[in-house]
UniProtKB/TrEMBL annotation:
This is histidine kinase. It is a multi-pass membrane protein. It is an enzyme of class 2 (transferase). It comes from the Bacteria. The gene is creC. Keywords: Cell membrane, Kinase, Membrane, Phosphoprotein, Transferase, Transmembrane, Transmembrane helix, Two-component regulatory system. One of its GO terms (molecular function) is protein histidine kinase activity. CDD domains: HisKA. SMART domains: HATPase_c (SM00387), HisKA (SM00388). Its EC number is 2.7.13.3. Residues 281-488 form the Histidine kinase domain. It catalyses: ATP + protein L-histidine = ADP + protein N-phospho-L-histidine. InterPro entries: HAMP_dom (IPR003660), HATPase_C_sf (IPR036890), HATPase_dom (IPR003594), His_kinase_dom (IPR005467), HisK_dim/P_dom (IPR003661), HisK_dim/P_sf (IPR036097), Sensor-like_sf (IPR029151), Sig_transdc_His_kin-like_C (IPR004358). It is found in: Cell membrane.
Length: 488
């Protein structure tokens, strides 16, 4: 399972559990909280009305007459309250009825007054609100009109009626819970919708955080892949310079520390591999001329005929020159590899660079009986003239080594492309992809391997600095090496 899927799964699991319990607590607390507030207000109402009814109860005016009605001032006020017209807008809801039921019992629990005339004369001494209040305790109860219907409940809150500091009766205020149910339902809907919105926002934040985390981790992964060694089955030139990796990703926190640690590790590993490959390849290339010089030197210590002595002395000079060429080109290549781009400022003409390279190699070509010819017209561009001339000089030197005596090496210009073509034996097809590797050489026409294998490596590096490419192909006969510069 991928990291992003795991993070999303863990986040949604934690968020879902938390949201479930939070919503459950809120939803479970709304109804009892509303009823608690309702009961608190009913306590105040019951005690106020108990004080107002105390004089009529003491005077015996609350007792109902033959028509089950009372003519006491208190009873008349309560009945007028019940018939009052009302149209109140309460937080978006319209209230058009007064819902209090008020009844008064004596010290035995018998109902003396009932605002709805339903229970006058009934014995309420066993009801919790009346019984507890007559004992001097807080009396309240909730009773359902329909046993299985929670919305049919009615809350009853009682208050003692004092006459001469003694409990002379009980006044109870009753209110159906359905009158506040719509407020409860609306609160529950708001909490539920708010919970869903919170869950959706949390999910969005979770997705955003997960995507951010996965994006940064993938940047680190891509960076790690860019600096790793070649995959299994891929050929890698041990003497080639370190490959250019992606830039160190800018990520915050611990991921940033990891990225910088990976970059330091990459630098150490690349430097070590580069040096090891460089030393191995250089040792291999130096072994042959050093052995030849040593062998010639040992023979020169003996008494030899003049002709042999001259031959071995010539061999020492030739191998020394070969060592010198390897060292010079290694220094040139090393300087190029330390650079990241060419420093072209003023426009440079490819034709001028080609003419300069031909001028530097003309004498050597004449010694080999080879003609150098320039054709076509090149364009101008923001290139570094010295590097372009160096690349063409190396190509011409390489072509002169392979071209047969009496042939012509062609330098062809075509817009932003310059090519060097000889009429030699060419290069085997299997070796074409390796041209440009450090120290890789092919046999000269005479069978010797006098080249250092660094000329084309220098050319390839020059093209990389200019953002161009070196394209090599056999022309039958001969080899054509084209330098394709980016169009200016």
């Amino acid at each position: 399972m991928r990291l992003g899927i795991r993070l999303l799964f863990a986040f949604f699991l934690i968020n879902g559990i938390a949201a479930f319990f939070v919503l459950r607590v809120f939803m479970a607390e709304i109804k009892p909280s509303v009823r608690e507030v309702m009961e608190d207000m009913m306590v105040d109402t019951a005690n106020i009305l108990a004080e107002l009814a105390s004089e009529d109860l003491a005077a015996g005016r609350l007792a109902a007459g033959a028509d089950n009605s009372s003519t006491s001032p208190f009873a008349q006020h309560v009945r007028r309250y019940a018939t009052r017209p009302i149209d109140a807008a309460i937080w978006g809801f319209s209230k058009q009825s007064l819902d209090y039921r008020i009844y008064v019992t004596d010290t035995t629990g018998r109902v003396l007054f009932d605002s709805e005339n339903r229970a006058i004369g009934a014995d309420y001494s066993q009801w919790r609100d009346v019984a507890r209040t007559l004992r001097g305790e807080y009396g309240a109860r909730s009773t359902r009109d329909v046993e299985d219907d929670d919305t049919s409940g009615v809350m009853h809150v009682a208050a003692p009626i004092y006459v001469k500091e003694q409990i002379a009766g009980v006044l109870t205020v009753a209110k159906p819970t359905r009158t506040v149910q719509r407020f409860i339902d609306r609160a529950e809907r708001k909490v539920f919708m708010g919970g869903l919105l919170l869950l959706a926002l949390s999910a969005a934040v979770g997705v955003a955080v997960t995507l951010w985390m996965v994006w940064n981790v993938r940047r680190l992964r891509d960076y790690a892949l860019s600096v790793q060694g070649p995959a299994d089955g891929e050929r890698h030139d041990p003497g080639a310079p370190p490959t250019t990796a992606l830039a160190v990703p800018e990520v915050p926190g611990e991921l940033g520390d990891l990225a910088r640690a990976m970059d330091r590790m990459r630098a150490r590993l690349e430097g070590r591999d580069y040096i090891e490959g460089y030393v191995r390849a250089l040792t291999h290339e130096l072994k042959s001329p050093v052995a030849a010089i040593r062998g010639a030197g040992e023979l020169l210590q003996d008494e030899l005929p003049a002709a042999d002595r001259a031959e071995f002395a010539t061999q020492v000079v030739q191998q020394s020159e070969r060592l010198q060429r390897i060292i010079d080109r290694l220094l040139e290549l090393s300087k190029l590899e330390q650079r990241h781009h060419a420093e072209g400022r003023a426009p440079v003409a490819l034709q001028a660079c080609a003419e300069a390279a031909i001028g530097q190699t003309r004498a050597r070509a004449a010694q080999r009986g080879i003609m150098l010819a320039l054709s076509g017209t090149g364009s101008n561009g923001p290139w570094e003239a010295e590097l372009v001339t160096m690349a063409l000089t190396n190509l011409l030197d390489n072509a002169i080594d392979f071209a047969p005596a009496g042939s012509t090496v062609q330098v062809e210009l075509d817009d932003a492309t310059v090519a060097v073509r000889d009429s030699g034996p060419g290069v085997p097809d299997y070796a074409l992809p390796r041209l440009g590797e450090r120290f890789f050489t092919t046999a000269r026409p005479g069978g010797e391997r006098s080249g250092s294998g660094l000329g084309l490596a220098i050319v390839k590096r020059v093209m990389a600095l200019h953002g161009g490419q070196m394209v090599v192909r056999n022309t039958g006969p001969g080899l054509r090496v084209a330098l394709e510069f980016p169009a200016s």
